[in-house]
């Protein structure tokens, strides 16, 4: 499975961005999809995921109520709508996939930079 993110960029605090992650090479609907981020000098952290079955979503506390993850199985794409962005959201955002939600994430994208200015 290959994952390619897009949609990152520079935005002012309070603004919005929508990230996309296009998948190829596998049966997209069978994968739980996650978004992660890594800020300079920090560990990679979980942001959100959406399950392969039922489309259930889960968010990390820092983004709850501001970010929304969704998926379009027909387009093999997962999205991350980010609203009310804060400078502390600045990071490289990566998507990841795990088959039927089991175990660790097996596949990762290369990431897209999100920079939020104050």
Descriptive overview:
The protein is an all-beta fold. It has no helices and 11 strands. The chain has strands at residues 2-6, 9-12, 17-24, 31-38, 45-50, 57-59, 67-72, 77-82, 91-99, 107-108, 112-117. Strands 2, 4, 5, 6, 9, 10 and 11 form a 7-stranded mixed beta sheet that branches. It is globular. The model has no long low-confidence stretch (mean pLDDT 97).
Features:
0% helix; 118 residues; four-stranded antiparallel sheet; single chain; mainly beta
Secondary-structure topology with pairs:
Elements: E1 2-6, E2 9-12, E3 17-24, E4 31-38, E5 45-50, E6 57-59, E7 67-72, E8 77-82, E9 91-99, E10 107-108, E11 112-117
Parallel strand pairs: 2-11
Antiparallel strand pairs: 1-3, 3-8, 4-5, 4-9, 5-6, 7-8, 9-10, 9-11
Measured as a percent range, the helix fraction is under 10%
Mean pLDDT: 97
Q: Main β-sheet, in a few words?
A: 7 strands, mixed
Order of helices and strands: EEEEEEEEEEE
Strand residues, percent? over 45%
Give the N-terminus to C-terminus distance in angstroms: 37 Å
Q: Spans of 5+ residues with little confidence (pLDDT < 50)?
A: none
Number of strands: 11
Radius of gyration over C-alpha positions, nearest whole angstrom:
13 Å
Instruction: Please count the helical segments.
Output: 0
In short:
With 118 residues, this protein is an all-beta fold. The protein has no helices and eleven strands.
